[in-house]
Amino acid sequence: MSETAERIHVTRSRAKPGGTAAAAEGTVPFRRARKPPWLKVPAPGGPNYRRLKEKIDGDNLHTVCEEANCPNVGECWERGTATFMILGDVCTRRCGFCNVQTGKPTWNDPLEPLRVANQVKAMGLRHAVVTSVDRDDLPDYGAGAFVGVVRSIRMLAPECKVEILTPDFRGQEMPLAKVIHEKPDVFNHNVETVPRLYPIARRGSQFLRSARVLRMAKEMGGPDVVTKSGLMVGLGETFEEMVETFGLLREHDVQVLTVGQYLRPTENHLPVVRYWHPDEFAALERAAYDLGFESVAAGPLVRSSYHADQNLPENKRAETLIG
């Protein structure tokens, strides 16, 4: 077997996701429920989608678009944008909503940052998003890989804006400081849900720890780094809890916010309590702007990196258009 074949990771179905799939009153059954019409999207398969999939698979790269079963993968890839996932496709945590497999990671490719940057250059991206699985097994929790990717993109595609969507680095300042020192244009860390639901949905994580990471990122990066976070609805939260959580994020200097509908990946994941109506997302967006967020995207199909180049404060968006 060649060295290339030995390092190829094939995504497997997730055997032990976090959370519970037990039926509960008011939840939406996995198999029988019809999704509301505003959640219907065309199946991917256009020419640009196929071209990008071939290039990404050929370079043995992972995208969160595929790993997380993103409903927007067809649209985004047809537009020539993708969110790269570094550090492999096995996560050390078990969030009850996430479709990325959990286990003991073995992926450690020192050339991955250069391969990602080469792909960014080849795709001609003006705004690249880079995320990763949680790597609590690594001494720096994966911070060094983010540093390498930002540096490599700056070198090979200097006009491209770089957004990184990172884990919480266990709340440690030094790994975070290494990443922020590279001055990514956007630092994104998703809190995912309201604090009350963390024991169910985000085992191994803490809401206030994530909020502190966002505040530290802003303090370290200053005006050069935009801070961003995202949440889902559909896990049992209330409108009031969502707005309260928005307020906590503003208190921790978060500038950009995304809110989308949770879609249950498999029957082994947390059930959908309900589907929020587009009018409710519009109300959430208004409430977030009232709290002082500089840019807000809220909608059933919104994901953290969906149209990321458009969901920026006005000054950063202008820089992207001019650059």
Mean pLDDT: 82
The main sheet orders its strands as: 1-2-5-6-7-8-9-10
Q: What is the CA-CA span between the terminal residues?
A: 45 Å
- Relative strand content: 5-15%
**Uncertain segments:** 1-24
Model description:
With 323 residues, the chain is an alpha/beta fold. 36% of the residues lie in helices and 13% in strands. The protein is built from twelve helices and ten strands. An eight-stranded mixed beta sheet has the order 1-2-5-6-7-8-9-10, with helices on both faces. A two-stranded parallel sheet has the order 3-4. α5 (112-123) packs parallel to α6 (143-156). Mean pLDDT is 82; it is low at 1-24.
Q: Any key phrases for this structure?
A:
323 residues; 8-stranded mixed β-sheet; alpha/beta; 10 strands; disordered N terminus; 36% helix
Topology (SSEs and partners):
Elements: H1 3-7, H2 47-58, E1 62-63, H3 64-67, H4 73-78, E2 83-86, E3 90-91, E4 101-102, H5 112-123, E5 127-132, H6 143-156, E6 161-165, H7 173-180, E7 186-188, H8 198-201, H9 207-221, E8 226-233, H10 239-251, E9 256-261, H11 278-290, E10 295-298, H12 314-322
Parallel strand pairs: 2-5, 3-4, 5-6, 6-7, 7-8, 8-9, 9-10
Antiparallel strand pairs: 1-2
Helix pairs in contact: 5-6, 6-7, 7-9, 10-11
Short description:
The chain is built from 12 helices and 10 strands. The protein is an alpha/beta fold and 323 residues long.
